[in-house]
Design a protein that fits this description.
This protein is mainly α and 109 residues long. It has helices at residues 5-30, 37-59, 71-87, 90-108. The protein is 78% helix and 0% strand.
């Protein structure tokens, strides 16, 4: 099914409006009162849980028996940790660790 230009524009506007309202909803609901305990729990613990899940996911296929013995992954994780502790900048940590991993993976595999 092919959309006409007007139908595509209408769909885009409604999608943008819905996205805006979904993003604004928590601010509208919790701006005047203290958030419930479950929201505070999620805010405090979920980021750490997600990071732990991502680490497990990244290391699940790590091959330690054959060259390069997981070196790109381990150095990439070490670089990410080092950059984050050094500069405390999430974007620098993520991109720096990823770039180091990709360069090592390219040259060592």
């Amino acid at each position: 099914m092919k959309l006409s230009l007007s139908a595509a524009l209408i769909a885009s506007v409604f999608t943008a409006l819905l996205l805006f309202l979904l993003r604004a909803f928590p601010f509208l609901v919790f701006s005047k009162k203290e958030p419930p305990a479950i929201i505070r729990f999620v805010e405090k613990y979920i980021p750490s849980m997600i990071i732990a899940i991502l680490i497990v996911y990244c290391l699940k296929d790590l091959q330690l028996q054959a060259a390069p013995f997981g070196l790109p992954s381990l150095v990439g994780i070490g670089a990410t940790i080092f950059l984050h502790l050094w500069k405390n900048n999430s974007m620098l940590s993520i991109f720096g660790g990823t770039i180091i991993y990709m360069v090592l993976n390219y040259f060592l595999n």
